[in-house]
Design brief:
Number of helices: 8
CATH architecture of the largest domain: Roll
CATH class of the largest domain: Mainly Beta
Radius of gyration: 21 Å
Shape: globular
Structural class: alpha+beta
CATH topology of the largest domain: Pnp Oxidase, Chain A
Largest sheet: 7 strands, antiparallel
Oligomer: single chain
Number of domains: 2
CATH superfamily of the largest domain: Electron Transport, Fmn-binding Protein, Chain A
Order of helices and strands: EEHHHEEEEHEEHEHHH
Length: 241
């Protein structure tokens, strides 16, 4: 049985302007300020000019090929950014998954994403209320290419939208409505390097600590790890919606 465990980490991304300091401290790590990059022109010189096709591939809408990829995708990652002046307004990246085609294309410029049952932290949704900018990454099992969409999002509880996503007689509480600004296919190098779909490289159970074991440690014993692992094995599949 394949188990998918995702670990999320939120925090500030190091960004520096050139300064006279010899060292800059980031958390507990001390970085040599002479080697930090803070100038976009310097960054471009380091990496060179992008291929013409990498620029031309970007669309401002969804065509038939984009629709086909989204229809085949059972998994996406949604990136959001909170407001910097709001406590806890970190950038966040969260998975969303269901049967292929769970994201609906309303028209060439609009996507509808049901917000299914989760842990109610609401990291993604609260960020959208503070900052509508979102980035989506769609994945299809077996493919090493991914599909990216950037745009603006709002949350809707309109019954006309929610009713389109009934599964097992359950509806999502909200629908994330995304206005597409950029859409393009991502090259396959990252997933080829990761060899992510190679079943021969799937981790054997017990290779890393279980979900329950981690939560027991991270909550200072508030969670019974063994009981949580059993709950995830038996109850979670029955409460997906």
């Amino acid at each position: 049985m394949l188990s998918l465990l995702v670990c999320r980490t939120n925090g500030p991304l190091a960004s520096f302007r050139a300064n006279s300091k010899k060292h800059t401290k980031l958390g507990s790590m001390e970085l040599d300020a002479r080697h930090l990059i803070g100038d976009p022109a310097e960054l471009r010189r380091m990496y060179g000019t992008p291929l013409e096709r990498s620029l031309r591939k970007q669309l401002d809408h969804l065509d038939g090929h984009c629709r086909a990829f989204i229809a085949a995708s059972p998994l996406l990652f949604i990136a959001t950014q909170g407001a910097a002046e709001v406590p806890g307004g970190w950038a966040d990246c969260s998975p969303r998954g269901d049967h292929p085609g769970f994201v609906k294309v309303a028209d060439d410029h609009t996507l509808l994403i049901p917000d299914r049952r989760g842990n109610n932290r609401l990291d993604t949704l609260q960020n959208i209320l503070l900052n509508p900018r979102v980035g989506l990454l769609f994945m299809v099992p077996g493919l090493t290419e991914t599909f990216r969409v950037n745009g603006d999002a709002v949350l809707s509880r309109d019954p006309a939208l929610i009713s389109q996503f009934v599964v097992q007689d359950k509806t999502p509480r909200t629908v994330i409505v995304v206005t597409v600004k950029e859409a393009y296919l991502q090259c396959s190098r990252a997933l080829v390097r990761a060899d992510i779909w190679n079943a021969g490289k799937f981790m054997a159970p017990g290779t890393i600590p279980s979900f329950g074991t981690m939560l027991q440690a991270h909550t200072g014993g508030f969670v019974d790890g063994q009981a949580l692992d059993e709950e995830n094995r038996t109850r979670l599949p029955l409460t997906l919606y």
